[in-house]
User: Fold these one by one.
Assistant:
Number 1:
Amino acid sequence: MRARGSNAAAGVAALVVLLVASVGRATPLPGRGPAAPLVHEEKSPWPLHEGPYHGNLDGIAFGAYGELRFAEDRIRGVTNPEWFSVGRVGGFVSARLNPRFEILGEGAWDRGPDDFSLEQVDLRYRLKRSMQLHAGVFLVPLGRTNLWHDGPAYEFAERSLPATQLIGVPNAQLGIGLRGAGGGLHGRPLTYEVDVVTGYDDGLIMDAAGGTRVPKGRNNYGDNNGVPALAARVAVHPSSTSEIGFAEQSGQYNKTVLGGVTIDHARYLHVLVADATSGFAGFNLFGEAAVALIDVPPGLQALYAQQQWGASVELTRTLREPIFGGWTRSKLSGGLRVDAVDFDPSVLGDSRTRLSMSLNFRQIPLGVIRLGWYYEIARDRFNNKTPKAGVTVTTAAYF
Amino acid sequence: MPDSFLSKLIADKVQIRLRRSKGEPVLRAKADRGGRRRSAIAICLLIMLGLGCDKLLTSPPAPGERFDQPLQGLDNGELGDFQDGQIQFRRAFTITDGLGPIFNNVSCATCHSGDGRGSTENTLTRFSRGTDLDIGEGGPQIQDKAIPGAVAERLPAGVDVSLRMPPAVFGVGLIEALTDSVILTHADPSDADADGISGRPNMVTPPGFVPATEPGAGPGLRVGRFGRKAQVSSLLQQTATAYHQDMGITSPYFPTENVNPLAPAGLPDPDRAPDPEVNAGQVNDVEQYMRMLAPPAPGEWTDQRRRGQALFASARCAVCHVPTMHTGAHEIDALSDRDVTLYSDLLLHDLGAALADNRPDGDADGQEWRTAPLWGLRIAREFQNGQLLLLHDGRAHSVDEAIRLHGGEAAAARDAFLAMPPADRAALLDFVESR
């Protein structure tokens, strides 16, 4: 009980600090939200201040964000004692070394993978107004959620199942690539990114408990087999608030030589992601679907899936803005999301399906308090279902 | 139409006209009302959410409705051990953890569905050449999966094959707590009573790694009681062997990896996890967990089931499927000195050629099988995708089918069942399926 009490005090204190910081210090700079396609920026698709930076020092801008989670989670009616946790905490720094050259760094600890990951150490060189060369560690363009997943502007407490369980958001890799924007398709702006990256490693098999888990092969900053992977995304922007993107990453994931002896041939992983953002009748609609194709060694094929898929659909809407006359930038919004992932389509089970609802209060755009509920059915390989549900209160803010 | 509503409507129109005359945006006023309405709906939904909290946050299963529940009467320390063991039982090993190099499955839980029986997908394959367990060709059990760099075993040609569906693991503590003498009370190896039924124990020698203090261990021959042919006397032996044979996980009890004897020589060892890959405590945790798993509750008695029970006895099914035995002393109080309604004598019986696997197991021959306990049948379908998979290899999909496949010593009981009028057969089946 004592530990629970001290956790509560620490949690409440952290919540107060985050809120005070977000209200008192935050500057309402342009958000990093998905509804603002990069291609519509006036001068450059990749402005230095693409995030809500709160400080600068000799040309270096910096900031941070955090996310706290209070929850009553129950698995088959049994309460999970972990009622307070840090969802995500990270910091970012940016410096423009000259008008064409800039560097962006970002690192975060994320509750999903329970790990600290270096998400960006990205050197960016603007070749021309709508084309940029970049190199370093960066978020691979595997879907909108991976490219943009900061907590404060997100409408749900947890990211979607395909994002976390198939793509492995946040998924950063070491590489080099080209980003660009053009006139596009029938006059509709088009953005693209093509990167050569380290790819996923054999952790997707070696470190995966109970079957293939693609996210276990990420954070392969050093490349385990010396063979790069190719990642690419192309997106068309039919309007200023809509986007349709297609992304793919392919590459060898395994090691073929062990102790100087060739033990296997090259095996490839392909991850395909499609995402779409749109608005209609006051609603914002976002959908993302992912498919993974894995060449699994024959000795493991009965247990380790060679195909996986997942999809999510989010419907969000601003319910009231401003909430009160005096809070001119306040907003109340709500969201509904359905997401699912099938870890092995060759068996009836081994899947997860979830329904989430969220009601979000923002006094200013850079901080949010979310009240959420979710209900999830997880199925094991026997197709036995385990229901899991929870009520969550999460808060996230830039500071 | 009530006056108050009418007056409000008029007031709203007046207000709108006033705003128009002042040049204020009317649409904003409408939007405000719409926003308030949406907010009110959202808040109502949240209140409903709170009121329906228990329903919306899942509810626990009723006692006796699952296979993974602890025995009644455990103390807090034992319940803590139960939880520790459950974590180990459900732990899925990764290749980095030491899974393999050859194996059948990645965890205990992925073979025993919900702690009950397995399925046809994870049935184990045992084989022999007559009475030779064929160790040199990968016997006695095929490990059909291998980590990268290792070679999975394949079934040699011309061998006798015995498919073994993973058994339920609940209730094994109660079986362990039965003394050898209680089980032997029901033995009749030479059929002295000339009833055609001659149950006999599978007397086995516990392996050296099982401490003499463990139930089912000690010097000399002990009554085997676990396994399809009662070929194992100790729960620790069963657990440690499953880690080693089924998952390729070494422990202090089996410190050396199980490898494919037919794999090409000169391959590097692909299993880089240091041995032993689990410690003795982890194996003991799983053993203790299974020991404390309660059998699910049987269904409620009805007149038909009582009649079915009487018919079960009159057809002489209950000679082998002995309804109740009594446990002896056990270090866990909840297992001591209590009746166990398992409907089994835990003895070997010849079930005829149709079910024979022609493969020996300890003292059991190719036609003998341990009497299967009849418990957990009532909810078994919930854990096997709505179907029943009965007998040692899951070939029977109903109790009726399982009875029809009985032969040998059980032929007379089978024939008695088949000779019953349909209503009686239905009553007997209802009784058995309610266990």
Number 2:
Amino acid sequence: MKKNHIRWSSIPEFLEEIQTYNQIVGISEIARRYFAMNAFDGVLTTIGVLVGNYLAGVRDLSIPIQIGIATSIAMGISGLWGAYLTESAERQRELTDLEKISLIDQSETSIGRASRFAVIVVSVVDGLAPALAAFIVLIPLFLGPWINNPILSYGLAGGIALLLLFGLGLFLGKVSEKNLIGYGFKTLLAGILAIAINFLLGAE
Amino acid sequence: MDKGNLRRIVLDVLKPLEPNIVDLVRKISTLSGVDGVNITIYEIDHHVENAKITVEGEQLSYLELRDMIVENGGAVHSIDEVAAGKRTVEEVVTHQD
């Protein structure tokens, strides 16, 4: 069998190939799961950065911005690396199991290619989701010079974080096709709890 | 050299559950010379299934068919029936059968 030859020559063909890969290994389902889980992590971690800086009396917004960016980069790399390693190990094991049963080398079949493609997509989603979520939460801090009130920037960032959490809950509710608002409040509760515990521990 | 007009190929194939037989049958139907394809599953396991693939047409290419099956993760266990020539000859029932 020919290896590594181009299998599509136009965008519709490429999309069809992606659709086939998705059908074979269920990429969208696992990417969706990783996206929700890691965006949730990203928002909560950024809430931690914000509340920590606020309670420490930091009013120079460049400090939480720098910490936030550094944290989101670290979360992005952590997500990318972690997902790549775990997914490639899992996919390789599945492929090896299938090879044992079918007695053929699956690495250059559509199944092998779908597995490799899934690893890349899931890793990118896993890396981008927390970093992107963190950046969104930090927007009011970036706008600090225009808002001109650090406390208000912190407050707005906290508000965006809670809104994002609620949105993620709605997204999960949509996935489960049940109780959208219920899921929204469950994720929102996590954010409120994180803020509340931080304030309780940080209170003099 | 005239390779002969291969008109029917029946294969016993072990294939993964995905890509499913709807996709596979469509892909095989696009191969050169294929008039029609039938895939019948006769056994399902945890990750794989056994399929009987019947392809009919004109100037069929066994190699193209085998490559298509392998490309989709399947393995040809046996070639169970073939027919070639100017017309398709059916198996004849004899007294010994």
